[in-house]
């Protein structure tokens, strides 16, 4: 009897917690998600569909978007449409913005489309760097630029810019990727400040290694992802549920996973930074003495 009562209380508490976590989503009706044909973007689409939020999905692969729209609209009785576009092309971004403005008042904007490269700055083509800058920065900024005034008019909205843990730590071989993701973090912090007196929530999501297609496409098509320790991998389902749950806290930078939060904290600590500086100075000294 006692155990039964205890279980009921726990279930009730769990339900209340879930309701609370998702209460900011309760009044939302329409979401735009870029990068919705796979991975984290697709997972946002699935989780928002379960909340009965209508979807406008954007990516290049039309067949994938079509299939997802059909599946989610049938399963959850929502409207799900898609726009197939290459968001690394400025004219395509403009077309998408104009199309979205015609569709419906948007409550949620998730800028998730992205890719990474392998190799140091000068070994990657300038064309690829420009495509990344256009996709990560121009597309996200343009969609925010067109949708924020609409959200201000309705005094309601959620903007999630999917950045990366790479925005918070400095590593070799990620110059443009990390720089564009850092842009998204700084941009999110600044628009959040400008929107602080509104009901618009801004989040910069900074995931670490996540099991998606990310490490299997483009430069990564021959990449052996088993070199990344198993314990560091996250699943898109957890990344997205953390992101949505954290909306309630109105915290701009969200790093899913305790290990990843600790890693970033460790990296930014005074001891680690001092050690990195010491190592760099040592390398420079050795280089100078070898030149003399
Ligand atoms: N997975 C990770 O380890 C990880 C870690 C940190 C941050 N992230 C970030 O998370 C976001 C989602 O990545 P993911 O892990 O879900 O990878 P993913 O499975 O490869 O998904 C990437 C999405 O972006 C879309 N996309 C790529 N280039 C595009 C373009 N030119 N125009 C329009 N859409 C484009 C892809 O669709 P199409 O190919 O159909 O266009 C796909 O839907 C990215 O911004 C990534 O930087 C990922």
Detailed description of the structure:
This protein is α/β, with parallel strands linked by helices and 292 residues long. It has a single domain, classed as 3-Layer(aba) Sandwich (Rossmann fold), CATH 3.40.50.720. It is 53% helix and 13% strand. It has a seven-stranded parallel β-sheet with strand order 3-2-1-4-5-6-9, with helices on both faces. Strands 7-8 form a two-stranded parallel sheet. Strand 1, helix 2 and strand 2 form a beta-alpha-beta unit. It is globular. It starts with a helix and ends with a helix. The relative contact order is 0.11. About 6% of the residues have low confidence. It binds NADP nicotinamide-adenine-dinucleotide phosphate. The site of NADP nicotinamide-adenine-dinucleotide phosphate (NAP) has 28 residues, from helix 2.
Short description:
This protein is of the alpha/beta class. The protein contains nine helices and nine strands.
Uncertain residue ranges: 5-21
The CATH class turns out to be Alpha Beta
What strand line-up does the widest sheet have?
3-2-1-4-5-6-9
Average pLDDT level = 91
Number of strands: 9
The CATH architecture classification is: 3-Layer(aba) Sandwich
Coarse morphology = globular
| End-to-end CA span | 84 Å
Task: Give the H and E element order.
Answer: HEHEHEHEHEHEEEHEHH
Rg? 21 Å
Instruction: Enter the CATH topology name.
Output: Rossmann fold
Bound molecules: NADP nicotinamide-adenine-dinucleotide phosphate
What is the number of independent domains? 1
């Amino acid at each position: 009897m006692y155990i039964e009562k205890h279980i009921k209380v726990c279930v009730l508490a769990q339900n209340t917690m879930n309701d609370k976590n998702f209460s900011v989503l309760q009044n939302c009706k329409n979401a735009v998600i870029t990068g919705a044909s796979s991975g984290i973007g697709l997972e946002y689409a699935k989780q928002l569909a379960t909340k009965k939020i209508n979807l406008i999905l954007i990516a290049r692969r039309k067949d994938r978007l079509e299939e997802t729209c059909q599946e989610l609209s049938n399963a959850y009785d929502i409207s799900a449409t898609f726009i197939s576009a290459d968001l690394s092309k400025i004219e395509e971004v403009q077309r998408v913005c104009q199309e979205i403005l015609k569709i419906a008042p948007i409550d949620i904007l998730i800028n998730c489309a992205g890719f990474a490269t392998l190799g140091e700055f000068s070994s990657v083509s300038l064309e690829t760097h420009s495509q990344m800058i256009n996709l990560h920065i121009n597309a996200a900024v343009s969609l925010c630029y067109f949708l924020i005034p609409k959200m201000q008019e309705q005094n309601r909205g959620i903007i999630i810019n999917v950045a990366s843990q790479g925005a918070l730590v400095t590593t070799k071989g990620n110059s443009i990727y990390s720089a564009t993701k850092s842009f998204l973090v700084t941009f999110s912090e600044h628009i959040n400040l400008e929107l602080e007196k509104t009901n618009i929530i801004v989040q910069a999501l900074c995931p670490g290694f996540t099991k998606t297609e990310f490490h299997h496409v483009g430069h990564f098509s021959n990449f052996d992802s088993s070199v990344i320790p198993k314990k560091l991998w996250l699943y898109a389902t957890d990344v997205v549920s953390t992101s949505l749950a954290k909306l309630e806290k109105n915290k701009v930078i969200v790093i899913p996973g305790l290990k990843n939060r600790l890693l970033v904290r460790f990296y930014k600590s005074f001891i680690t930074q001092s050690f990195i500086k010491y190592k760099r100075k040592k390398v420079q000294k050795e280089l100078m003495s070898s030149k003399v």
